[in-house]
Amino acid sequence: MKKFYFSCIIAFGFTCNVLALDLGAIAKVDLNTTAEKSSNGVFGEHLFNGNFSKVVQHVYNPDYRIGIGDVVTLKMWGAFNYEQPLNVDSQGNIFIPSVGTVQLLGVRNGELVNIITEKVKKVYKENVFVYADMGAYQNVSVFVTGNVNNPGLYQGLSSDSLMQYIDKAYGINPKQGSFRKISILRENKLYKKIDLYDFLLQGQMELFAFRSGDVILVESVGSYISAAGEVLRPLRFESKELTMTLKELAKLSGIKPTATNAVVKSYGSDNRLSVQSYPLDAFESVTCKAGDTVEFMPDYLSKEIQVAIEGEHDGLHTLVLKKGITLLELKKDLHFNTRSNIQAIQVYRKSVAQMQKKLIEAQLKELETLALTTPSVTPQEATMRTQESKAILEFIERAKKVEPKGQIVINEKTPTETIVLEEGDTISIPTHNNIIIVQGEVALPGAFTYADGQNIDDYIAQAGDLSERANKERILVIKASGKAEKYDTSLFTMSGKPTIDKGDAILILPKAEGKSLQVTSMLSQILYHIAVATKVVLDI
């Protein structure tokens, strides 16, 4: 894998180290971006990917008109035996010994045997039998034009399909071309109209013989409507007419059984945006016009919520509860046992996890900007900046993969009757235990038994003490309830040390070292937030 390092000299002699470019990574980004765009693209745009043009099909076509250069395989037996492939010459004839020339130019393939037999019978009255077949077809030349990616004149067989010729032209331009309005012109007159939606949706394709000089014209896309939400195909769909009903769009896009409503966004002639919602039973009577965007969505009125129960209890692990239930009411229905730590019940919420994820991602983006744009005074420092940038980018990639738990830390002063549960919440009931977890930058991370009178320094000492990479100013104590407390070892007063209780976890974060105070500060913040959100120490 080749990498290139770019740097530039800016005012006052500073060297700005920009980025180490990984060509492989850039290629992956481009592919991912393309794939992402395609997922919200045009219905049918993936149809032409080169597979049709790779196939050559020799199909018997009785309506094919024999042309100059075609090869006819002739067999005669009986009183006279003869077998030979014969080329149709420049005058449209084939030559048969003892029979003479036979004019075949323009003859239908279905009449080939009869024409030759009639000529042979004039010489051999009896006991001579004739069989003829097209051994090789002369290529026909077909124009492909309009809204295709590479218009031009393409050669193929007369029996080749419309799909093959369009594929030779690298397919229909999805931004401009119509998949529903394709015209076949013959001698400057309309010969056929093709709608590729018949093929895309039902697999139906009309096969016919092409002639040299035929023109395939892909017309411009007319009316189109976009579908999104609870559909199998969130794409842009073309309408043959100026409008389309919601029912037709739902069928084209593959509406999911969970969809109950459609929100239609439409611009009027006064340039005002109109947003309307329609129920499922009204789809047939609602008309969408060109440019509308429709989002199919589930909209259920539920009086119940579903929550998960994890941890130490003797009841069910999934409960369906009335909407608006509080944590206090739920606790009355839970089946605790002697090992259940009722005082440390934890609540995890998906919306909180998403918020924590967005916060971390925003900080990572800011860190990436700082790492890649921090100036250097000398070329030597620029080299060090490049190495630091590489390490930070690797850390960012690892940090992007962390998944916050979304815990709601319940303050001991907050009445549980004020905590209203939501759909998808997870209630975790910790187990009573006498274990203290020590992890992060210590010599021997692990679990240690609780002992009365021991403080945080005692447990860190049991774990082999702090490593050289430990951030002595940012040591976290995560209580069994999820509450986080920060400890700074530079504070020597006993009052500054957090109390360690059974079931607590001590997290020693790594020391963030950057070439600038901004980078160091941002790294420290990110490590802290990840530790609080995931209860895991992420290495730098």
Write the topology of this structure.
Elements: E1 3-9, E2 15-22, H1 23-38, E3 71-78, E4 82-87, E5 93-96, E6 100-103, H2 112-121, E7 128-136, E8 140-146, E9 152-156, H3 162-168, E10 177-186, E11 189-194, H4 197-202, E12 215-220, E13 223-229, E14 236-239, E15 243-245, H5 246-253, E16 261-267, E17 273-279, E18 287-289, E19 293-297, E20 304-311, E21 318-322, H6 327-333, E22 346-348, H7 350-373, E23 375-376, H8 379-400, E24 407-408, E25 426-429, E26 435-440, E27 446-449, H9 456-462, E28 470-478, E29 484-487, E30 505-510, H10 517-534
Parallel strand pairs: 8-12, 13-19, 20-25, 26-30
Antiparallel strand pairs: 1-2, 2-23, 3-4, 3-7, 5-6, 8-9, 10-11, 10-12, 13-14, 15-18, 16-17, 16-19, 20-21, 22-24, 22-25, 26-27, 28-29, 28-30
Helix pairs in contact: 7-8, 7-10
Keywords:
540 residues, alpha+beta, wza like fold, Outer membrane lipoprotein wza fold like, five-stranded mixed sheet, 10 helices, 30 strands, 23% helix, elongated, disordered N terminus
